[in-house]
């Protein structure tokens, strides 16, 4: 098969699966909430995408490296929003407990 066709199919697949995260990332940033994501899901997904990125590096596969590297950044941004949200909720709980005493 033609190498250019293989590369085009790879980039098409990579584009589709990576861009699929943009609506969720946009909503997460806009609402500043990632409550719908569990920490377990985010951690496992990030680990998997990180390992795919490393696989691409080891295989010198630009498509795998770029697609998974970008996806990893997008998912990490959702994790960052979730961490900030968790911090805020913990601070609110501490404030409520202090006011009750």
Commentary on this structure:
- The protein has helices at 3-19, 22-31, 39-59, 62-100.
- The longest helix has 39 residues, at 62-100.
- α1 (3-19) packs parallel to α4, α2 packs parallel to α4 and α3 runs antiparallel to α4 (62-100).
- The protein is elongated and about 70 Å long.
- The protein is mainly α.
- It is built from four helices and no strands.
- The N and C termini lie far apart (73 Å).
- It has a single domain (3-100), classed as Monooxygenase, CATH 1.20.1280.
Write the CATH architecture name.
Up-down Bundle
Order of helices and strands: HHHH
Number of helices: 4
Low confidence ranges: none
CATH class, named Mainly Alpha
**Mean pLDDT across residues:** 90
Dominant shape = elongated
Helix content: over 70%
What is the CA-CA span between the terminal residues?
Answer: 73 Å
Largest sheet: none
- Strand content range: under 5%
What do we call the CATH topology? Monooxygenase
Short description:
86% of the residues lie in helices and 0% in strands.
Task: Give the SSE layout.
Layout: H1 3-19, H2 22-31, H3 39-59, H4 62-100
Helix pairs in contact: 1-4, 2-4, 3-4
For this entry, give a set of tags.
mainly alpha, Monooxygenase, 101 residues, 4 helices, 0% strand
